[in-house]
Amino acid sequence: MTDNKTTPYAALLLRITLGILFLAHLGLKYFVFTPAGTAQFFQSLSLPGWLAYVTMLWELLGAIALITGFYTRISAVVMIPVLLGAIVTVHGPAGFFFTDANGGWEYPAFWIVGLIALALIGDGPYAVKPTNLKFGEQK
Questions:
Q1: Which one in 14, 31, 59, 117 has a CA-CA gap of 20 to 30 Å to 69?
Q2: Transmembrane residues, as ranges (predicted)?
Q3: H or E segment and range at residue 54
Q4: What averages of pLDDT result for each successive group of 10 residues across the chain (139 residues)?
């Protein structure tokens, strides 16, 4: 049974939290590793260096979309490839636990589950541009 009075606020909390996590992840790349250092790291993974800049922009725009509630359901799904890429290139080979050397894939996988849950729950209150998708609704 879903509590229709509190579920929207759960979506709001999840939406803002996931967006802040993407901002933190971006901040790590930008302020700690630097954009040039992040590009070098991508190259060390046999990825093109320019992909680091695309990823940082993707994280910034996705974070803003999630926090503000701009097409939340779509934004949540669109952010999943960033995390899948992190799992495939860095965290997957490191093992399961995030405490493993180079961080395992447990945390990014859980983050993906949070994004999927948000996409299923919906925008929540105070969304600047609700998605207006209704799953399971027949016309």
A1: 31
A2: 12-31, 51-71, 78-98, 110-128
A3: helix 50-68
A4: 91 98 97 98 97 98 98 97 95 90 91 97 95 65
